[in-house]
């Protein structure tokens, strides 16, 4: 986290002080590397630190920070764009130093997770840490799980080669498909389309501000809904409800645009139609913000056994960035060819991924992270991949899944 923060800080500095395009590009590359570090380490850190009962809520705190950051950044950008002398962009870019400094300072106060202390061979220290973060001396059962997980992990020398073994097939598949699915919901296309819609709604010059503020607030509030629900009602219910809500919204948006603009894109929307489409967009952003948005980071960080946890998360981050890039590159071309059909295209994917979740993603709420294999073992499809000796603890399984 420290290195991520430092790289990010240098990137922010280069961007803010940029004298030429090369500096901008280099700065942006460093910011990207910084984000990569953060997205690799933060979700795993939070999932390992959190007591199982509130792991979802704590992990989604990361997404919460990001959504608040996006809202703040949009407001700042709007403000700096009004600066007549034209140096506003420097302020915007240099302000990336604020989260960077927070991360750097924070990383000095953050203790290591018991897992990583144990991995480095200090069982006594690891136990102390566990007692400290649980606020009780009674951590025997959990510590035993950690120690067992550590023993299993030690047998594995090459996490990257290992993750390809059949015994990790469920985790590998999920760590590839979840980030792919998260991006193919079309969220970034909706984010792009929202300001256009706001223009037709008559917000005029302030359209992009209004759009950013409204979708930004929906995003923050609905991420809070996810924090509240993930450990109470479970990940699956959020995925399934969110998926269905997104499908409905996308189909209706496609229908409304199709009726009003046809395939040649000429036409207009009456006020009430535009209001309705605006409502649909907000309902769609809401659904994403309490399902695929945060859970796309939570689930991959909690399903992998210790020995492949970093490798799994690295795959998750890379696949996510890769498809963010692809969709960013191609969606305009697709929009030109598919017109309103683009929304149906994404809706089709959301149908597939919702069905996938229904059949292939077991519920992980409240399951201690080191006992996760009990859940895979009990799964109708994945169970056959999990060898008996990979299952740790599990005496609580009945209680947990009851
Ligand atoms: C990093 O993780 C956050 C938090 O969940 C997410 O909102 C963001 O899109 C991720 N960024 C990248 C580049 O993957």
The CATH fourth-level homologous superfamily of the largest domain: MFS general substrate transporter like domains
Helix content: over 70%
- Distance between the terminal alpha carbons, to the nearest Å? 37 Å
- The low-confidence parts are 396-402
Count of distinct strands = 0
Largest sheet: none
Shape: globular
**SSE sequence, one letter per element:** HHHHHHHHHHHHHHHHHHH
Overall average residue pLDDT: 89
Cofactors and ligands present?
2-acetamido-2-deoxy-beta-D-glucopyranose
Q: What is the CATH class of the largest domain?
A: Mainly Alpha
Put simply, the count of helices is 19
| Structural class assignment | mainly alpha
User: Any guess at the CATH architecture of the largest domain?
Assistant: Up-down Bundle
Strand content: under 5%
CATH structural fold name of the largest domain: Growth Hormone, Chain: A
Radius of gyration: 23 Å
Number of domains: 2
Subcellular location: Membrane
Domain Major facilitator superfamily (MFS) profile: 1-365
Transmembrane segments: 58-76, 88-110, 172-194, 209-230, 237-261, 276-299, 311-332, 338-361
Main location: membrane
